[in-house]
Each structure stands twice: as structure tokens, then as C-alpha cells.
Specification:
Layout: E1 4-5, E2 14-19, E3 24-29, E4 32-42, E5 51-60, E6 83-87, E7 93-95, E8 106-108, E9 112-114, H1 116-123, E10 131-135, E11 139-144, E12 147-152, H2 163-172, H3 182-189, E13 195-198, E14 201-207, E15 210-211, E16 216-219, E17 222-226, E18 241-243, H4 244-250, E19 255-260, E20 265-270, E21 272-275, E22 278-279, E23 285-287, E24 289-293, H5 294-304, E25 322-324, H6 325-331, E26 336-340, E27 345-349
Parallel strand pairs: 2-10, 4-8, 7-9, 14-20, 21-27
Antiparallel strand pairs: 1-5, 2-3, 3-4, 4-9, 5-6, 5-10, 6-7, 11-12, 12-13, 14-15, 14-16, 16-17, 17-18, 19-20, 21-22, 23-24, 24-25, 26-27
């Protein structure tokens, strides 16, 4: 390449950092990012080398010497654009381009392409000797206020095969502002790239005064609960988590709860049924009066014998799952019943 060469200087006020997966060139001033530029990087077959280099030469109006072809003089046909910033690694450099649609993608033969107006700005600031670091970081973590954002860039060179390990390693090196709900993160992420996602914050989940085996999480303005809670009413959820408002709407009359933003705790209360002093695993629900799950009614029939008014039990044996407490008392009047409406506790026994 032939052109106007600038003399070396020793002022390193500026440094350059290039991240291949992000296809970005960051210009740092005294170690702080001053501006970020989109770039094109090397293809998988001709990857951009990683490491620490320096700008070895700056050439205005460079000539391109393609292998096996005639040289391309400066001008609109020259793929190097107006400036060539040659690196201390021979054959590689930062330059302009004549194909702006390639910017933002891995399409070069290993060099770093910039928009022509961007490389002109860069040349006005950096000097020969300016440090250049080329890295391969597919995961980026940013904190904005009390929220943490995770960015996943494409793994162009197929360097990582396990996304979860990649993310865990990077986050393990950060001082995070809150506890991450890892299972919720993997569910939200679904291994898609590229993607920007807020890290879900772990929330403590309390069920009827006791800590639940699984935690909930806060994601943006939404709270999510483990779908295993549906098992309290003998149901199975297709997804591992269910949004809090949707959960409360789905199980209206079966659960009430409070989300304390200060303590990051969700406190749920259900209609608990105690039979002979033991908590029955299925919860009931309330609509003007308590309703009992069919499994408990069948157990009562075994202990107390046939009902006095069997015609009151199930009008549709294949579908009916709940029995009103008032009907239960008519069918087995010998059962002792105590319902604490304030605590949502129903006690049954002999």
C-alpha cells in the first residue's frame, strides 16, 4: 500500500478495543469508552486474529494489492476506503470500505472494516503506536440503576458450545447487585442469540407461612412463580413458571398473596384443609363457602361410611372435582367442622 504515511507519536490518550462477536470498535479515552462504532470482522473461514497490537502505520488513500490480481488504486472501487490503519500484525488493519452493507457482520478476510466517515473520525484522533486490543467476548453485562442487563452476541467462530457455562463464567466475575434466579434465566433465554435480556432477580416465596422449596423471580415489572404451585390443586402446568398476576387470576378464590417490594418476598396464602390433625396435600378453594377436593371427599367416605344423601355428591362423576362444605355436612353430619375464615383454614375430624 502506498500513500501519505504519518509519523509515529507517543501520545496514547486513546486506545482501541474491538470485540469480534459484537462487531464493534470502541474508542477509549483514558480507559473510558468515548464512542463505539459498528464494524465488519473476519469470516469464520478467515477470522480476525485476537490479541494486543498497536497501530503500526496510517496511510491516506491506500492502494489495495489483491492476491493474483492487479493493484486497485485509491477511489470508489478500492475496498480499503480512504484510510488504512495497519496493525503491528503484518497484513491486518483497520480501514474504510466500499461495501457499507457488510458493516455489522463477519464478512471480511480478517481485517476490520469501518464506515468511511467513522474511520475518518478515528484517524483524526489516534496515532501510530496507539494500542489496539482485539477480543472475543460473546457475553456483556451492564448495570443500569438497580437493574442488570445481559447481552449475548453471536458466536461467529463457534468457540463456545455451552451457553449456560459461558454466561455463568462471565457473571461469576461480576459483583452483581442482586441474586440471579438462574433457572428463570435459562427459561427466559431459551438459548437464542443475539439477545438482550434483563437478569431475573431471585425472590423469596413463602407459602402459608413457610418458605417454599422453590423461589420466584422478578423480571422487569413482572413477577413469576414456579408452576409447581399448580400441583396444590392437582393440576400440571405446561410451562415451568407462571406470571404472578396470571396465577392469581387463574386461581382466584384459591389463593391470595402479597408482593413485598422492600423485602423481595411473595407471601401466598391458600385454603388449607386439616383432616385429623394433618394437612391434606390438596388445597381447597373458596366461593361463598369452602370447597373440598374430590380426593379428600373419597377419603372421608372411607372413614365415615356411605353418605346419607349420595345424590348430592356428584352430578357428573367424570368432571366434578369439588364439593361444597355445606353438602359435605349434609352427607356426613358426624364430621366435626371448623372453618377459620380469617386464616383460610378448614379443620375436619371426628
Amino acid at each position: 500500500m502506498i500513500g501519505q504515511v504519518r509519523a509515529a507519536e507517543t501520545d496514547y490518550e486513546w486506545t482501541i478495543r474491538i470485540n469480534i462477536p459484537a462487531t464493534t470498535l470502541e474508542l477509549l479515552r483514558y480507559g473510558e469508552v468515548w464512542r463505539s462504532f459498528p464494524v465488519a470482522v473476519g469470516k469464520q473461514s478467515t477470522p480476525t486474529p485476537l490479541g494486543r497490537f498497536t497501530i503500526d502505520v496510517i496511510i491516506e488513500n491506500p492502494i489495495w494489492y489483491p492476491a493474483g490480481r492487479s493493484p486497485i488504486p485509491p477511489g470508489v472501487e478500492n475496498p480499503l476506503g480512504r484510510y488504512w490503519l495497519g496493525l503491528s500484525l503484518k497484513g491486518y488493519g483497520i480501514h474504510g470500505n466500499n461495501n457499507p452493507l457488510s458493516i455489522g457482520y463477519p464478512q471480511s478476510n480478517g481485517c476490520i472494516r469501518m464506515h468511511n466517515q467513522d474511520v475518518e473520525l478515528l484517524v483524526g484522533l489516534v496515532r501510530v503506536g496507539t494500542p489496539v486490543e482485539i477480543v472475543y467476548q460473546t457475553v456483556k453485562v451492564d448495570a443500569v440503576g438497580d437493574r442488570i442487563w445481559l447481552t449475548l452476541y453471536p458466536d461467529y467462530y463457534r468457540r463456545y458450545t455451552r451457553v449456560q457455562e459461558e454466561i455463568t463464567t462471565v457473571l461469576g466475575q461480576k459483583a452483581l447487585r442482586y441474586r440471579v434466579h438462574w433457572a428463570g434465566l435459562w427459561w427466559l433465554l431459551a438459548e437464542e442469540r443475539p439477545q438482550v435480556i434483563e437478569l431475573p432477580q431471585e425472590l423469596q416465596l413463602v407459602l402459608d407461612g413457610e418458605k417454599y422449596a422453590e423461589n420466584a423471580f422478578l423480571w422487569g415489572e413482572q413477577a413469576f412463580l414456579p408452576a409447581t404451585l399448580a400441583g396444590l390443586w392437582g393440576e400440571v402446568s405446561a410451562a415451568p413458571y407462571i406470571e404472578l398476576v396470571e396465577f392469581m387470576r387463574t386461581y382466584a378464590g384459591q389463593v391470595h398473596g402479597i408482593f413485598d417490594q422492600q423485602t423481595k418476598t411473595i407471601d401466598l396464602h391458600t385454603l388449607r384443609i386439616y383432616y385429623n390433625g394433618r394437612l391434606f396435600p390438596r388445597r381447597g378453594w373458596f366461593q361463598e363457602e369452602p370447597y373440598l377436593p374430590r380426593e379428600l371427599v373419597e377419603l372421608l367416605a372411607q372413614d365415615f361410611g356411605p353418605p346419607r344423601q349420595p345424590e348430592l355428591l356428584w352430578t357428573n362423576p367424570e368432571e366434578d372435582r369439588w364439593l361444597p362444605l355445606s353438602v359435605l355436612v349434609l352427607c356426613w353430619p358426624g364430621i366435626e367442622v371448623n372453618f377459620d375464615a380469617a386464616q383460610w383454614v378448614l379443620t375436619l375430624g371426628r
